[in-house]
Amino acid sequence: MVKSEVLTLVDQGLRLPLMEEFYTIQGEGFHKGTAAYFIRVGGCDVGCHWCDVKESWNADTHPPTDILHIVKNAATYSDTIVVTGGEPLTWDMGPLTEALKAKNLQTHIETSGAYVLTGTWDWICLSPKKNKLPVGTIYDKADELKVIVYNKHDLIFAEEQAARVNKDCILYLQPEWSVREKVTPLIVDYVMQNPKWKVSLQTHKYLNIP
Prior knowledge:
Blueprint: H1 3-11, E1 15-25, E2 35-41, E3 64-66, H2 67-77, E4 80-84, H3 94-102, E5 106-111, E6 123-126, H4 138-141, E7 144-149, H5 153-162, E8 170-175, H6 180-193, E9 197-199, H7 203-206
Parallel strand pairs: 2-4, 4-5, 5-6, 6-7, 7-8, 8-9
Antiparallel strand pairs: 1-2, 1-3
Helix pairs in contact: 2-3
Protein name: 7-carboxy-7-deazaguanine synthase
Domain Radical SAM core: 31-210
Family: Belongs to the radical SAM superfamily. 7-carboxy-7-deazaguanine synthase family.
């Protein structure tokens, strides 16, 4: 298949730049502690300086993989599939989620919301970033809002974002891993004063699992 044909399939969402796929325990947010199969898609231009998977940013370094192959692997391991990145909404998620739902699988996404929401999702984790804010209707559809806290100003940003989500959206503050010892006490105090928020930790890192 020539390169132009491959790129067309990627544009159509029939192939995706697959960085990695693995079966593990969800470490963050509402579903933490539960088994899930993760599909990490390459490509992201949001550019968080503290991102711990910067190798995902350049989609060209990850092979354009047939979504049917991805779905076949996923269905072997788990009923719950988490699509993450990178920024998965860089690509059309419609074909992938259609194929996953055809296998009766639960579809979860972790996204900054920087691109228009595509796909059919059972759970949407919205983790907005200051330098490229969410677009479209994702605020109305998010099941959980997860704001990464790197410094005190991020608490102000968190409140700005919380004001935009739907009333049933669960609100989480999560310390950025590299400064967790500094910001975790700040988050704990804030949640105690503002109990609409919950603390999210990257428990998979404490457990030393992917």
